[in-house]
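So, does this match?
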Amino acid sequence: MLNQIILIGRLTKDPERRGQNSEKPVAVIRLAVDRDFKRDGDPDADFFNCSVFGNQAKFVLEYGKKGRLVSLVGRMQQREWTDQQTGEKHTVYEVAGSDIKFLDKKPENVGTPAAQNHAAVPAPNMAPPAPVQPPMNDYPQPIPGAAAQYPTPDFSGVPDSYAWGPGGTPMDNPPF
C-alpha cells in the first residue's frame, strides 16, 4: 500500500505550535495549493491542513511566515472524534508531513535576531552591498544557481523511436 502526498503551495498564515513538549514540538500549518485550471477566469486553489513534527517543526516554526512557498512531503491521514457536548461525530483529513522545504528566499524579518544583526553590519574596509532591486511582482524570485545542483539528464542511450513514438518519425497530427 502507498500513502504519500507531495504538495507545493503557500502558507496561508504563520505556523502554530501545538503541544507542551519543547523537545518534540508540533507545527500546524495550512497550505494553499493552486489548481492548474481556472474557473470563470479566476485562479482556484485547494487548502490543506498539515502537521509537521520534531526538528522539521522547529524549522518551520522559526522560518515559516504567511505567504512563504513550501514543498511538503507526507501522508494523508484521517482523524475522527465525537463532540462531547452534542454527541456529533466529526471527521477531518490532514497531511502529516515528514519533509518540508522552503522554495523561496528567506524574508529579512525571519530567523534569529543575532543572525540578522551580523548580516546587517558591514565588515570594515569592505564596499557596501549593492542595492537590492525590488521584484517585478509579489512572487518570490528564483534563487540563482539553484538548478545547478541537478545534473543534466543524459539521453544518449535512448533509441530515436522513443522520441517520436512507434516508427521513430514525427506524426503530422500529434495527440497533444
